[in-house]
Description:
Layout: E1 2-7, E2 10-13, E3 18-26, E4 33-39, E5 46-51, E6 58-60, E7 68-73, E8 78-83, E9 92-99, E10 111-112, E11 116-121
Parallel strand pairs: 2-11
Antiparallel strand pairs: 1-3, 3-8, 4-5, 4-9, 5-6, 7-8, 9-10, 9-11
Amino acid sequence: QVQLVESGGGSVQVGGSLRLSCAASGRAGSYYDMGWFRQAPGKEREFVGAITWSGQSTVYADSVKGRFTISRDNAKNSLYLQMNSLKPEDTAVYYCAADTTVHITPGAVTYWGKGTLVTVST
């Protein structure tokens, strides 16, 4: 079992920045690929980005490419999401995810955090 706890959400104005964190604990957390998903009100959960366990490879959704950056610190069992140039359409609950391989389909993910809310206002 892997436990994931997100933090860092909040309210920000358009064009602002936020940094989300995800603390992993439990079984061999550093050997999991990890990622971020988000779910806006009334919409399905969608892939944001992911990073391999080594940190050497990342992949992003087109909607956040160039604005969001995923990183991890395996010594701290932590995953991060730096979000810049935020837009109102980035408003959502952001979820940390972990699995033995990168998934872009939410239904395939094994471990989830409970989410942290990001609100981008004009």
